[in-house]
Amino acid sequence: MVNKILAKNLSSLHSHSLKQALTQVKNTRYKIIVNGGGGLENSNILDAHTNELVFKDSATFYKEKFKFYEKYELYKVLYFYGFANAYLYILLLKNPNLKHVVIFDDDLELLSCVLSEYDYSRYFKENKLILLSKNDENIMRSLFVSKGIFDSLRVYFLDICSDFYLRYESEILALQNKISSLIKETVIAKGNSAADTLVGMRNTVDNIQDMVSNSSLKELISLRRKASKTAIIVSTGPSLHKQLPLLKAYEQRASIFCADSAYSILAKHDIKPDYVLMCERTDVTAKLFEQNFPQIDKDIIFVLTSVVSPLAVKYLKESARKFIIVSYEAAFIKSLKLQDFGYLNIGSSVAHNALELAYQLEHQNIIFIGQDLAYDSKGASHSKDYIYTEFYESNDLQGEEELVAYGGVGTVKSHKTWKFFKGVLEKMCLNIQNNKNKQVRLINATQGGARINYTQELSFKDCETLLDEVLKKPFKDLEPRKNAPKLLEKIYKEMQKLNLICKQGIKNLENTMLKAIELFNGDKDDLLKSREILSFLLAFIDEFSEFLDKNPALLNVLTSDLSNFRLSFTKIFVCKTYSNSEEVQKNLQLINLITEAMKSFIIDLKLLDSLLEKSLEKS
Fold it and tell me: What pLDDT is attached to residue 401?
């Protein structure tokens, strides 16, 4: 039976996996040893099996650790391996600057011993102490994107509570690698640049008329939900070619979701996909649709995201191919009141979009083929017959990566973009598996490339047992929309509102820049003057953040620049100074960083303003 203190602690933990595991602990080899006058500060923990104490000398340990962390007194987040008795962390949290201490520990017997003896529930509830297992990847991802923690990712380091925990050295190194990868993934997810985002916004605005003139994602889901038990998602990795004969044989037994890059390959082998998806912004990608294939095109629905190049839409219209345009759940899209069209929730690649669409259409089995996310043994990046050749990305190593191979034996070569795509795909698969209301079997039948966690590895041939129905194809057809003019009128009204908000943001930034220039008159090396200017700029950044919170559509274009600013600001801000001259130099660095960021924000918003005005002129 779980004692009351342990139950109280467990009810306050965020880690579901730790909660479950700790309720199963029946016995522990650890004992609490209390010295002196008692209390947490005088406690130690003994491993009865090895006769080893967590702290060899508690008094000296706390004194040395506390002294060491004086230079980190401006840090908002600290990370440790080893919970111990958490007294060190409670001491550190007396520093008002420190908001969170994240602790990783999987020694269930030790945790059970300590959490049964001392009440930490208040610290857990207030997120001051965040206790996690090394396997809590989803919680880590959520933490890393949260406002108070994201800003500090560039100054992350993992400390070991005490030498006692060196017994877990291999686990700590593996955790360190995992956290580093998740941090990279988090930063990449904030976007490449404002320019890239603006291209997507421009394409969305240019594609709006075609979007509202055709059926919506909601209508597609409503019409075709549960039309098939099994979906096959076809990507263009080097392993695809060997799967094509079986794919042809399975054609009438599954819904086929095809990446844009695999479209011409399937056409060459006379395989008719039900859906062809595209999500990239470039004209190079759009040209994948330049050639049509009448023998397979008739019943295909081309599913394009709103950010694709209008050239792709032009090619489809010229050959009368059926398509719908869908959008991601972004604030810019929401500001145009397009929610009735439905959203795709995740979309770094066409495979992600295909998985999301197959899931929304409520397939019971979802099979991946050609999803290598790696080079093959010859260095090929794509399948044979790929329109831009099978070695299209073979020189694009972008920092070569080694990933666990399909089957779990050995490694394969990849690059950072594919590794990022793999991480997103795995997160999606895990979320699908965790949804107990909708049971879906996820199968990786690529038989090559990298292992994709949270999927079952089966040969494509062995998937035949799942394909036990002959489908009535083509599926129900979509109808063009009749009320497009009225919808467009509403959308352009929302665009006008957004344009005015954009101009207000530009005005606020420019006025503040002028005021900062006025304040800069005089001795820049004066301590009080540098404090005054920095205080003024920080107050404005707080106001501007509130303005963006109220007008999140502008955040879409500023996200990448704003994220880089926040990461760079924290890296400088947490540096402790020990003299007036050091403080002046630090203040000037922060002032320069803020003003440069503001210049970037002005440029970003002016480009958005121009984009909106041109669109409104056309309307």
Answer: 83
Checking DSSP bridges between strand 411-414 and strand 401-404, what pairing results, if any? antiparallel
Residue 12 makes CB contacts below 8 A (sequence gap 6+) with: 120, 121, 122, 124, 125
User: Rounded distance, CA 301 to CA 476, Å?
Assistant: 11
Could you tell me the two tokens for 390? 């099978």
Determine how many CB atoms are found less than 10 A away from the CB of residue 50: 10
Alpha-carbon gap, residue 247 to 255, rounded angstroms: 11
Position of tokens 């998602």?
A: 233
Spatial strand order in the sheet of 230-234: 343-344, 323-328, 301-305, 275-278, 255-259, 230-234, 365-369, 441-444, 456-457
Give the C-alpha distances (Å, rounded to integers) separating 273 from 295, 327, 425: 12, 22, 22
Distance CA 372, CA 241 (A): 12
Residue 94 burial class via C-beta count within 10 angstroms: exposed 0-12, middle 13-18, buried 19 and up: exposed
Task: Give residue 315's region: left, alpha or beta (phi > 0; psi -120 to 50).
Answer: alpha
What 3-state DSSP class applies to 310?
A: helix
Quote the CA–CA distance of 575 and 594 in Å, as a whole number: 17
Q: Give me the pLDDT at residue 2, please.
A: 61
The pair of three-digit structure tokens given for residue 601, joined into one six-digit string:
């924000």
CB-CB contact of 89 with 100 (8 Å): no
- The pLDDT score that the predictor gives to residue 522 is 64
For the record, the structure tokens of 173 come out as 């190194």
In the numeric block, the tokens 């994948």 are attached to 288
pLDDT digits (tens, 9 = 90+) for 46-89: 999 999 999 998 889 999 999 999 999 999 999 999 999 999 99
> Could you write out the DSSP letters of every residue in 403-432?
EEBTTSSSEEEE-HHHHHHHHHHHHHHHHH
Residues 6+ apart with CB under 8 A from 515: 536
- What is the rounded CA–CA span in Å between residue 509 and residue 516? 11
DSSP state string for 254-280: SEEEEEGGGHHHHHHTT---SEEEE--
| Alpha carbon distances (Å) from 20 to 23, 119, 278 | 5, 18, 41
Do the beta carbons of residue 420 and residue 190 sit within 8 Å? no
Q: C-alpha angle 360/366/371, rounded to 5°?
A: 115
Give the 3-state secondary structure of residue 124: helix
The answer to whether 148 touches 77, Cβ cutoff 8 Å, is yes
Alpha helices in 292-415 (DSSP H): 294-297, 310-318, 331-335, 350-360
The mean pLDDT of the chain is 92
Task: Find where tokens 């009204």 sit.
Answer: 493
Number of CB atoms found within 10 A of residue 439's CB: 9
Q: Which of 306, 316, 233 is nearest to 274 (CA)?
A: 233
- Quick: pLDDT tens for 167-218: 999 999 999 999 998 998 898 888 767 888 889 899 999 999 999 999 999 9
3-state secondary structure 2-32: CCHHHHHHHHHCCCHHHHHHHHCCCCCCEEE
Residue position matching structure tokens 């009535």: 472
Residue 446's contacts (CB-CB under 8 Å, 6 or more residues apart) are: 237, 239, 243, 368, 369, 370, 371, 372, 406
